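R.M. (postdoc): so does anyone remember the format we settled on? I'll just put the structure tokens first.
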């Protein structure tokens, strides 16, 4: 176990020089949160391109589930769990390697760069990916090896997903909606079962990690180190389910074309409802423990995903602020 714990020296050095940038680094790290993902995905799906939105809406949840599974397999601590020299400028209760922020940044911005296919955006995407990785080091929540592993896994997930999308999407589109829906359900449940198996059978967290994390952060143990709480896994798998079923239901009928006024109206209305869904179920989740809380977390991701991919587009068409794709 100890052999897998890297030296926190690099993190300590970076914090000594750049800790004053913590507010900016936290803002950059916001890119890796579910709130950013759902807000950005909604804008892309409703106002730019449902086709690209679908690809992104499947890729990021798959990346999130993959990251959670790998974290559980590696079982490595965060820097502030094992070193009192590290400042906990931010905290995260899950295991450390690979960095989910770094991995998802590669998938999100890499996918956007592939879609846009503009040289200037490749530069922007690369800068944002690097800055996201740096932010996780400065904040004290990852070792350099975690960030490097996150980038590497992100590249592999992005390449495999892009290749599979180009190879199999035409064939999948030819299946009946019921078959497509069954495939989405099966994929989501497989990820849930795999992740929960690792959660239930996970090794104990060393008491020294808990003591150090609490001492450095000043937060209760349950908030600062709780790596077997599967909310990220379940919300990601739920999002995959909701987005997939919503897309199957709409069958490509929605078009993001229209005036700027219409696009802004779609986004404002859609996000208002999405916020109600997110906040409402988040409030309920915090009040539930164990299997009940896990189920609500899965439902939250599924409800938001279905709203983005199916519910909102159907409502926009009914209200006359979107046209059918012909």
């Amino acid at each position: 176990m100890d052999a897998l714990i890297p030296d926190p020296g690099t993190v300590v050095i970076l914090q000594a020089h750049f800790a004053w940038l913590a507010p900016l680094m936290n803002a950059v790290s916001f890119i890796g949160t579910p709130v950013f993902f759902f807000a950005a995905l909604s804008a892309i799906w409703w106002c730019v391109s449902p086709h690209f939105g679908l690809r992104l809406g499947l890729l990021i949840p798959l990346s999130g589930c993959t990251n959670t599974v790998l974290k559980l397999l590696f079982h490595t601590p965060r820097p502030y769990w094992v070193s009192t020299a590290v400042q906990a400028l931010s905290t995260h209760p899950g295991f450390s390697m690979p960095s989910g922020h770094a991995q998802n940044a590669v998938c999100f911005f890499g996918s956007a760069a592939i879609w846009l296919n503009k040289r200037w955006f490749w530069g922007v995407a690369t800068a944002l990916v690097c800055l996201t990785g740096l932010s996780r080091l400065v904040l004290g929540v990852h070792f350099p090896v975690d960030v490097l592993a996150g980038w590497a896994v992100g590249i592999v997930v992005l390449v495999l997903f892009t290749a599979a999308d180009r190879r199999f999407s035409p064939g999948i589109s030819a299946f009946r909606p019921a078959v497509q829906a069954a495939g989405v359900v099966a994929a989501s449940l497989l990820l849930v079962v795999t992740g929960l198996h690792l959660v239930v059978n996970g090794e104990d967290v060393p008491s020294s990690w808990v003591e150090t994390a609490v001492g450095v952060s000043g937060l209760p143990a349950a908030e600062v180190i709780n790596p077997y709480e599967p909310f990220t896994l379940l919300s990601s798998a739920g999002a995959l389910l909701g987005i997939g079923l919503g897309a199957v239901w709409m069958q490509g009928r929605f078009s993001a074309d229209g005036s700027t006024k219409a696009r802004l109206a779609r986004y404002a209305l859609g996000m208002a409802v999405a916020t109600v869904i997110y906040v409402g179920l988040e409030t309920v989740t915090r009040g539930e423990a164990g299997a009940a809380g896990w189920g609500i977390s899965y439902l939250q991701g599924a409800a938001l995903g279905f709203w983005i991919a199916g519910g909102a587009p159907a409502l926009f068409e009914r209200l006359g602020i979107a046209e059918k794709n012909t």
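R.M.: ...and that's the designed sequence above, right after the tokens. Also worth knowing: The chain has a mean pLDDT of 91. The chain has 14 helices and two strands.
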